Amino acid sequence: RRVLADGGIRKDMAQRSLRRARDFSWDNAAAGVLNLYGQVAGARRAARNGNGHAAADTLHNDRLETLAAFGMKNLVPGGIGHLRFHPAGQVPKVSVIIPTLDGDRNGNLTRLLEDLCAQDFDSFEVLLIKAVKPQGKAINTGADRSAAPFLLILDDDSRVPNADTFSSLYAVMQNGDPIGMAGASVVISPESNRFQQMAARQFPRFNMPVVEKLTESDMASHGCCVIPRSVFYEIGKEKENIIRGLDPDLRERMRKAGYKTVLVPGAFVYHPLAPTLGKLMKQFHRNGVGSAHA
């Protein structure tokens, strides 16, 4: 109302507006936009270079939230737990199959899943098969429900300490060799007790050397191995009528079909021996009986 009624105020505001307008030009506007773009681009470069782990940390945290929301207690006997660690709407590159009798394995299964959350591999699903026996049937159950072109089988008492393990296993399958089974070396955990460490030195299968180049081997095992889905079905999947001896049976059928079984350079997992002599003897007796049956 004052502006409409007072000519002096109108004149003063008009003069100030003209003075302000002289501060603007197309050249000044273009220079300002370029400067803003430069600041944004510089900030992004700094984030990538100075904080290169930010994206990986975000992915890790997102996966941990997914795992927490899943709730291991909801995994029922005979059921399949499904964790999706791949972009929505896309088929995963790898299906991880983990048979587990009790959904816990003395707390190791949760620790194993946390290891998987830390993997730098960007596209996989996890299928947890609870209380399905024998192991071969559990693995087949997971394979039949899987979506990816590659199956990665893990024991529920394994640990995967390195973040690049899945990437290394997957990369080997892309090199064009007729590989049917690519495994990580099994080594004794540094957290093992003195007895386990001593026993591991006596049994090479429980403390393998980590290979430096792709190596054909009888040591590839269900502790941690990747198999092309097409090959898995071509050779007839896992045997469901044997309770032990899945590893040698699968390797033998792979080779008869013309495929290699290999260890992957730099890849390893921790897999424990029994913690006492008495438990180790029981384990070996159980495995021996099962292998004789096979």
Radius of gyration: 29 Å
Helix content: 40-55%
E-strand count? 8
Summarize the main sheet: 8 strands, mixed
* Strand residue percentage: 15-25%
List the helices and strands in order: HHHHEEHEHEHEHEEHHEH
Task: Describe the 3D structure.
The chain has 294 residues and is of the alpha/beta class. It is 45% helix and 18% strand. The chain has eleven helices and eight strands. An eight-stranded mixed sheet has the order 1-3-2-4-7-5-8-6, sandwiched between helices. Helix 5 (108-117) links the parallel strand 2 (94-100) and strand 3 (124-130). It is elongated and about 110 Å long. The termini are far apart. The model is unreliable at 30-38 and 40-46 (pLDDT under 50).
Quick summary:
The protein contains 11 helices and 8 strands. It is α/β, with parallel strands linked by helices and about 290 residues long. Helix 5 (about 110-115) links the parallel strand 2 and strand 3 (about 125-130).
Helix-strand layout with pairing:
Layout: H1 2-5, H2 7-21, H3 26-50, H4 54-70, E1 80-85, E2 94-100, H5 108-117, E3 124-130, H6 135-145, E4 150-154, H7 165-172, E5 179-187, H8 194-202, E6 215-216, E7 224-228, H9 229-234, H10 246-256, E8 260-270, H11 277-293
Pick out its properties.
alpha/beta; elongated; eight-stranded mixed beta sheet; 11 helices; 294 residues
